[in-house]
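Supplementary Methods. Inverse-folding protocol.

Structures were first reduced to a discrete structure-token string of length 180. This string, shown here, constituted the complete conditioning input.
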């Protein structure tokens, strides 16, 4: 089973302007979106393969306008259209969120790059609070997850503490950002 999804880059500043699509907003580098852009994004989040003709008909605009707006939204990196495989449906039964604290003097950005390069890691977040870094790890088996933790976490001298939070059941996995 493949989940179809739209990922939004969460630096979007929705602005109902009617002045056009994906225009640069003054000041903070955010992109200004009008109500038509937001409606297109909402429809594509529901079905990433929705036909531009169908979207155009629902919004009562031309297919070319939809095509241009989607092109501008993707070019400005506000919108990405992805095919996302469901790891559980593919037999990946071991997943965990891992909270990591580093030894004093360790650069979290450098550590984040290390974990970002590992195939088993699907999510890396530099955090403020109890952990310096949060990573999501998905493996086929619990033995592979255990090996990952031993090799990439417990064996690393720059890590002072790890807390693996092993998933037992997944009830919601939403790749939407907000509800535009």
């Amino acid at each position: 089973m493949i989940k179809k999804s739209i990922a939004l880059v969460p630096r979007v500043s929705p602005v109902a302007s009617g002045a056009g699509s994906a225009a640069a907003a003054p000041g903070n580098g955010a992109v200004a979106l009008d109500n038509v852009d937001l409606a297109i994004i909402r429809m594509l989040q529901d079905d990433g393969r929705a036909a531009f003709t169908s979207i155009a008909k629902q919004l009562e605009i031309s297919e070319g306008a939809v095509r241009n707006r989607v092109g501008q939204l993707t070019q400005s990196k506000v919108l990405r259209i992805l095919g996302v495989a469901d790891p559980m449906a593919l037999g990946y039964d071991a997943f965990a969120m891992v909270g990591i604290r580093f030894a004093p003097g360790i650069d979290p950005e450098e550590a984040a790059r290390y974990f970002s390069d590992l195939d088993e890691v699907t999510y890396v977040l530099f955090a403020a609070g109890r952990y310096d870094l949060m990573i999501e790890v998905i493996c086929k088996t619990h033995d592979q997850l255990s090996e990952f933790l031993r090799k990439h976490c417990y064996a690393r001298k720059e890590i002072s503490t790890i807390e693996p939070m092993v998933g037992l059941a997944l009830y919601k996995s939403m790749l939407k950002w907000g509800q535009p």
